[in-house]
């Protein structure tokens, strides 16, 4: 694919960079998925990971989040707090006996440690995250009995409750109705304006267009990197 920007870090210094990876490789049980990925994630911007099913977007998010270990290459988080990772809502078990409030409270575990009593500050952070995602009314409901959009908002509230400056989201708007998608898009724009770096894997063209930077993956390789116009229009929509 035609690509105006070189596929790699923009330059050698760390200015304005939140995450830098070089020659990154990762996979599952010895099966390689990501191959020689090299790129920067600019700080205080929104980056969209785009590409066809199975191209490695979720795997890359998992590596950035630290839940999947790279098998080769280098990954550097430049400054900031440990990332907050919001997985695809379909990967969160329906049978989990958790209420919405308990789910959001888990966002404080990294700081507080699991099973420790939450402090008043923690509870305030949880309340604020639930209000921001409009799930306060659902606080006592079981996660498994929520609609897709409600569950997505609960998981996003958990991510926000972590208070990280780096939010990693796996398909936060896929399958949601237009109103719910617009709500999430507006929230992400606000979060970036408030000082958060957002990285989202997405098949949602509007979400990708709203990003500052798109990284296009194909078969585990980074094949284009640039503005949405450059990446999405250069060779047709890439999925
Ligand atoms: N837990 C796993 N165990 C083994 N292989 C996996 C696992 N998760 C993903 N894979 C494989 O890794 C490759 C990349 O998958 P990944 O989920 O990262 O792609 P994706 O771009 O996020 O796809 P989608 O758009 O469908 O969500 C695929 O071939 C997939 O089958």
UniProtKB/TrEMBL annotation:
<dbReference type="InterPro" id="IPR050153">
    <property type="entry name" value="Metal_Ion_Import_ABC"/>
</dbReference>
<keyword id="KW-0067">ATP-binding</keyword>
<dbReference type="InterPro" id="IPR047748">
    <property type="entry name" value="AztA-like"/>
</dbReference>
<keyword id="KW-0813">Transport</keyword>
<protein>
    <submittedName>
        <fullName>Zinc ABC transporter ATP-binding protein AztA</fullName>
    </submittedName>
</protein>
<dbReference type="InterPro" id="IPR017871">
    <property type="entry name" value="ABC_transporter-like_CS"/>
</dbReference>
<feature type="domain" description="ABC transporter">
    <location>
        <begin position="19"/>
        <end position="239"/>
    </location>
</feature>
<comment type="similarity">
    <text>Belongs to the ABC transporter superfamily.</text>
</comment>
<dbReference type="GO" id="GO:0005524">
    <property type="term" value="F:ATP binding"/>
</dbReference>
<dbReference type="Pfam" id="PF00005">
    <property type="entry name" value="ABC_tran"/>
</dbReference>
<keyword id="KW-0547">Nucleotide-binding</keyword>
<dbReference type="InterPro" id="IPR003439">
    <property type="entry name" value="ABC_transporter-like_ATP-bd"/>
</dbReference>
<dbReference type="InterPro" id="IPR027417">
    <property type="entry name" value="P-loop_NTPase"/>
</dbReference>
<dbReference type="InterPro" id="IPR003593">
    <property type="entry name" value="AAA+_ATPase"/>
</dbReference>
């Amino acid at each position: 694919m035609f690509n105006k920007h070189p596929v790699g870090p923009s330059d050698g210094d760390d200015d304005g960079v939140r995450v830098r990876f070089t020659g990154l490789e990762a996979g599952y049980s010895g099966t390689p998925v990501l191959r020689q990925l090299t790129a920067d994630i600019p700080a205080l911007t929104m980056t969209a990971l785009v590409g066809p099913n199975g191209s490695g977007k979720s795997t890359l998010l998992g590596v950035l989040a630290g839940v999947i270990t790279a098998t080769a290459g280098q990954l550097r988080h430049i400054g900031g707090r440990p990332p907050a990772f919001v997985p695809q809502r379909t990967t969160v078990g329906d049978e989990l006996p958790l209420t919405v409030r308990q789910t959001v409270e888990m966002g404080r575990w990294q700081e507080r440690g699991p099973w420790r009593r939450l402090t008043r500050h923690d509870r305030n952070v949880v309340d604020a995250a639930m209000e921001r995602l409009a799930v306060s009314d659902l606080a006592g409901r079981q996660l498994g009995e929520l609609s897709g959009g409600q569950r997505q908002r609960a998981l996003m509230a958990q991510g926000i409750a972590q208070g990280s400056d780096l939010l990693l989201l796996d398909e936060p708007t896929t399958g949601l109705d237009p109103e719910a998608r617009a709500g999430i898009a507006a929230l992400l724009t606000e979060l970036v304006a408030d000082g958060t770096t957002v990285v989202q894997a997405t098949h949602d063209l509007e979400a990708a267009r709203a990003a500052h930077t798109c990284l296009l993956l194909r078969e585990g390789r980074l094949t284009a990197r640039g503005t949405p116009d450059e990446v999405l229009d250069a060779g047709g929509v890439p999925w």
